[in-house]
Records
---
Amino acid sequence: MPHILVFDSGIGGTSVLEHIRAVLPHADYSYVMDNVLLPYGLQSQQTIQQRLAALIKWLDRELHAVDIIVIACNTASTYALESTRQLTSIPIVGVVPAIKPAAIASRSRHIGLLATPATSGNTYTQQLITQFANECQVDLYQSTKLVELAEQFYWSGEIDRELLVAEIKQLELAAGLDLLVLGCTHFPIIAKPLSEAISESMTLIDSGAAIARRVASLLAQGGMTEEPGMAAQCIGVEPGVTNWYATATQAHNIDRPEIKLISLDR
């Protein structure tokens, strides 16, 4: 079975992992979160590139047999995807805002991008808008509070709806946009309460399903198909479950002994 490593600063990447598992249910999975620096949306490009380089070193040192890496973080992908690819022969799939499909699907020709400051303000995102949405009005909205709310919701199953509504209110989403691109993998985790807090005329869109298809395609091209029942070839990886790794303990006082603490500082 292929071994897929999914990486994010927190639990946002689980929204992508869910789509991948739906397509490749028998693969082995490792989920690595660099939550000591959560959220990446407040980190510099240099810092993120250094952390991704450290991830590759840790992977080579500790996990070894990984078939594909998914950088399930828009900020990390737009900041460090190309530089990280130069450090390993393992195929790497990044996650970028779904600007292109949103521009194609928009009827009003007015879309919004809801992302962290680092993603919405970087050059790569601006290039996506210029290349694929030059015939649309694209409004940019920034939030890290929604990352915090998504983390809270994932670990506790609860969300502070007053804070959510207040955050949406201060964003001042334009009435004319019909598609809101979720440019942070944390945001689909709270898609339901988020959709309830915005106008009914707005539809949320993210790139999770497209990323899953890309991962399956690359594995098939490499001849790595699922074969249930085969033993995992990766040291320390338990087949059939998601193997969790984190750089910090959880901030929500959740007892998750299966999460192994690691360091990306070496």
Note: The chain has a mean pLDDT of 91.
---
Amino acid sequence: MESKVHVILSLKRNKLFMLLCFSISAIPLGYVLHLERSLSDTHVYEYVSHGWFRDGAKWDDVDRRFLVSYLEGGVGEIKVGDDHGDVVEVEVEEERTVFRDPDLAGNSSMGLVIDRPRNRLLLVHADVIGNRFGALAAYDLSTWNRVFLTKLCGPGDGKSLADDVAVDGDGNAYVTDAKGSKIWKVGVNGDVISVITSPLFTHKGWYENLVALNGIVYHPNGFFLVVHTMSGALYKVDAKTEEVKLVKLVGGGSLRLSDGMVLVSERVVAVTGVPSGRMVESKDGWETAEVVGSYRGPAHRLATAVTIKDGKIYLGYMFGSYRFPKKWKHIIAQAVFQKN
């Protein structure tokens, strides 16, 4: 019971609090049950897990599997066979844990990204309860041996919450700090190259900074895009000069309460959060951008991850539904966006 209380308190203090309150506080139980019993109108992968919370989810096209990160620490795989075509809902085998890093016991596994040219998985680890530790680790995708472990922050460094990660063409990783409003740049061999900060990362009003920098993606034109959860600000950061620019949102759309992000094309990104998904497009190299589509999935599950499988966008959801005995049913669902 004490551990469950700690998890709840951590949600209130960190990146999940506002999203959690918004998405589940006002949803009647009967409606939740209705959502659970109804078939989705999009393609859904179901998988059975031993944990209630899942954070990141990425599709591994080479090994035909989804890789998911555990808030209790660790990474699992959900093997998927051939494309199911027009089948709406597919029952998938039980999630299989591929590793739990014993050196990081007690920390949550957060954002993850597949670095295919180097055959490795980059995974963020964080202390979501006390915000006193953060790290980035790389693991070999074939053996799951750890390639490196880089400490990003510790007890003497102030409050931080290492959250999401992106990787560039040279293997450099960029890790967002959802509490301290900064980005760590980590080299291909695990050395911390720099810490990127900017006055633009901090917004007026304490409530606008409860959850700061979150989802991040690398763009092949030499910059990365990162979203600020509470304010909805979108930034363009040059990977070499580390210059930070605010992307101007046009058209009246908002990115408030955003979480994970994936690059769909050079002009389009998909973003999760509340609502479940938003499609964002830029026609001028990400000087400006517009929210051009949205998708509303099962709000009570809370979309935190987004990935691309076979050209389709899929969302990973944080909360599972109880499945007797002592197991949880999770979903990864295709998002079909409606034009705004």
Note: The chain is about 10% helix and 45% strand.
